[in-house]
Amino acid sequence: MKKDTQTNLIKSHKEKRVGKFGIDLGERGKYDIRNPLNELTGKEWTHFINSISETDFSSNKDELRLWKYLQDSVIPTYYTTNGKNTIGHKLRKIHPSPKPPALMKEIINFFTKSDGWILDPFVGVGGTLLGASLCEPPRNAVGIDLEQKYLDVYKKVTKQEGLKEQIVKKGDARNLDNFKEVKSKTFDLILTDPPYANMLSKKRTGGDRKDKGNFTSNQKDLGNINYKEFLNEFRLIIEKSLMFLKNKGYIVVFCKDMQPTKEHHNLLHADIIQELYKISNLQFKGYKIWYDKTLNLYPYGYPFSFVANQLHQYILIFRKEEK
Ligand SMILES: C[S@@+](CC[C@H](N)C(=O)[O-])C[C@H]1O[C@@H](n2cnc3c(N)ncnc32)[C@H](O)[C@@H]1O
Fold first, then answer.
1. Overall pTM surpassing 0.85 (yes/no)
2. Over the stretch 94-128, which tens digit does the pLDDT of each residue have?
3. What distance in angstroms lies between residue 192's CA and the mean position of ligand 1's atoms?
4. Which CATH number fits domain 62-320: 3.40.50.12780, 3.40.50.920, 3.40.50.150, 2.40.50.140?
5. Distance from the CA of 97 to the center of ligand 1, in angstroms?
6. Which residue of 14, 52, 95, 309 pairs with 125 in a disulfide if CB–CB is 3.0 to 4.6 A?
7. With DSSP H G I counted as helix, E B as strand and the rest as coil, what are the percentages for the chain, rounded to 5?
8. Sign of CA pseudo-dihedral 266, 269, 272, 274
């Protein structure tokens, strides 16, 4: 905002000054006079920095709305974290980033048939496995995680919810070829949500405040290594898991970008895709965006500079091709 406009705003709202830097603009919220960029209040700023802008300028007709929904590449969800449809959220929330089982079910329904097998090498408290059990009929699944307490929580949830208990194994995903429960099968789908380098211990990308620290203190945790090492290790694990995936089977990976720095854009989703291009029999097929509407918006950067409030994650989709 130009200095004279700034001064005008301050003059015309003299009586509405709050604190040292605020002007009360009523329902619009508070304007900070140090704002060098625009005339937005904190509320309006926060609305703009949401990484997803939803618009519907088309029509009010219901059938058009439904068609628009069916065409959408964004999956907006609002999975409740309390009430009767939470699928054990109270127990699962000991994990820093559990995925909603209902969302995993939707993905599994698309990529498998009723007798399908699914592998998740980073299973946590079992979003993927619960999704597999919610399908009708329930699918079969194997999950691996370094941390026993997460697997125990998963088992508790299946009992509490009366869902089919899938196979879980404690261990390092780097050694997934050592598990007989993996070796003995040909999977139809690999669906996973890896720890993203040392993201949890770093300055967060907006919208991440639900996360509560590192997944584990284990050195083998892919969440405790740097960005470059992570990309390399993750590729090796995916390469190994391909041995147990059927031809034309899909690998679906959740990921979220980090804040850019001067040195690197930190578009993790793009770097994962680039890294996995090194696997000759794996083809990137595209992505979907998951917009988690339960996340809170925060006025990051206000009133000084733009900081994206990332409320979405990428669902990257790859397919195994014949060699
Ligand atoms: C993003 S979380 C997965 C959350 C899961 N989708 C859920 O719904 O609970 C990643 C998980 O990977 C596990 N992990 C990290 N490094 C691992 C490794 N080398 N082998 C197996 N699991 C690992 C962590 O313990 C963490 O639970």
1. yes
2. 999 899 999 999 999 999 999 999 999 999 999 99
3. 9
4. 3.40.50.150
5. 9
6. 95
7. 35, 20, 45
8. negative
